[in-house]
Amino acid sequence: MGSKENPVPVPKMNSTNLYVTTTQIIMKSDPTNPNSWQDLYRLVPYLRNSLCCVVCSYLLVDPLTPMIAQCQHHLCRPCKGGRKKIKPACEGCKDCKDYMENKRFTNTAAML
Ligand SMILES: [Zn+2]
Ligand SMILES: [Zn+2]
Questions:
Q1: Separation of CA 7 and ligand 1 centre (Å)
Q2: pLDDT means per 10 residues in the chain (112 residues)?
Q3: 15, HSE (Cβ side, Cα atoms, 13 Å)
Q4: At what angle do helices 15-28 and 38-50 cross, to 10 degrees?
Q5: Are 99 and 67 in a shared domain?
Q6: In a domain, 10, yes or no
Q7: How many A from CA of 96 to the centre of ligand 2?
């Protein structure tokens, strides 16, 4: 009881930010205090989603990223043009036109 810490917000973060934030939470967490892991439980699914292909749902290999759309819907190169498992359909990346390789993102995915 008493001081209630503000939960870490989950804004539209890109995978690099999510990766860093999640790592920071792990580093700052108190292993003896289960409450300190709450934020982690919340963030890890977002992190995983941000590194998964929206077509095949597996972790990204050789990822492509929408360059104009800011929706963070990545897909693997062989999945380009495939049917996305997004509901409702995303307006930003619907036609897969602006998907490009993104070195920064590729490096984040490669850390896994
Ligand atoms: Zn895929
Ligand atoms: Zn999208």
A1: 32
A2: 58 78 90 87 87 92 88 91 89 86 82 70
A3: 26
A4: 150
A5: yes
A6: no
A7: 9
